[in-house]
Specification:
Order of helices and strands: HHEEHHHHHHHHH
Shape: globular
Low-confidence stretches: 239-245
Number of domains: 1
Strand order of the largest sheet: 1-2
Distance between the termini: 31 Å
Oligomer: single chain
Mean pLDDT: 82
Length: 245
């Protein structure tokens, strides 16, 4: 019971912390919308697989929104470490899995809410979206948010500064997004890029957002989500002294 209450308290802390910071809300909303507008406008008239480029770009834009929310959600680990809050949580009588679960669930919830806000204006673009597909799409967004939050947790745990975390974000997460099928499909790309896209862990999540109604599309994302959670749990084996600022 104590562990569940602690997990719930940490979850609520993350939610309140995010929505009290208006700059984070604006940043995570404006960046995907601006990128969609610039790229979709620049490639107006281009079609991929029989659909307009803007329609093709939509799932990738949602994935970017989820990824940015996960990044901002997990970067707080570094701030908590410097403030001493993380050390206090580590010595509390709760499991580290509960700490990760609180972060992952909060990241999934925030990602879903932020993506829904991004989806609202984009749904008016080129005739809107299929309303019947929204429930499965929202579940897919939550799964993607949970996976990326778990991955961000592992990266933030080993980062000594916010600058280092941002460097990893720019050097790892943004290329992962760009080479996930969000901007171009693997078919038609050079052999090297096509191989990278197919091996990219984020590619199955973009494919899931593209077609959440396919049962087979869920297998790889769920497997990667479990793998990222295990990676986050493994990263917490680093001692409390090691994570001290």
């Amino acid at each position: 019971m104590a562990c569940q209450m602690a997990t719930w308290a940490l979850f609520l802390r993350e939610i309140k912390r995010f929505y009290r910071d208006r700059s984070r809300i604006v940043g995570t909303l404006m960046a995907p919308l601006a990128l969609f507008g610039f790229i979709a406008g620049g490639f107006a008239g281009v079609t991929i697989g029989g659909v307009t480029f803007s329609r093709y770009l939509l799932p990738g834009t949602l994935a970017l929104s989820v990824m940015m929310t996960a990044i901002f959600s997990t970067i707080s680990i570094i701030d908590d470490r410097k403030a001493g809050f993380l050390q206090g949580v580590l010595v509390a009588p709760i499991s580290r899995a509960a700490l990760i679960a609180a972060k992952v669930c909060a990241g999934a919830a925030l990602s879903l809410m932020q993506a829904a806000l991004v989806l609202l204006p984009l749904s008016l673009y080129e005739g809107g979206i299929d309303i019947a597909a929204l429930p499965l799409l929202f579940v897919a967004l939550a799964v993607t948010g949970a996976a990326l939050t778990a991955l961000g947790f592992a990266l933030a745990w080993f980062s000594d500064s916010t600058q280092g975390y941002h460097a990893m974000m720019n050097g790892l997460l943004m290329p992962m997004w760009a080479l996930s099928g969000s901007l171009f499909p693997a078919d038609g790309a050079t052999p090297v890029l096509a191989t990278i896209v197919r091996l990219n862990p984020l590619t199955p999540f973009v494919a899931l957002l593209r077609d959440a109604s396919s049962l087979g599309a869920w297998l790889a994302p769920l497997a990667w989500t479990a793998a990222f959670f295990a990676l986050a749990l493994l990263s917490t084996r680093r001692s409390a002294r090691a994570v001290a600022a």
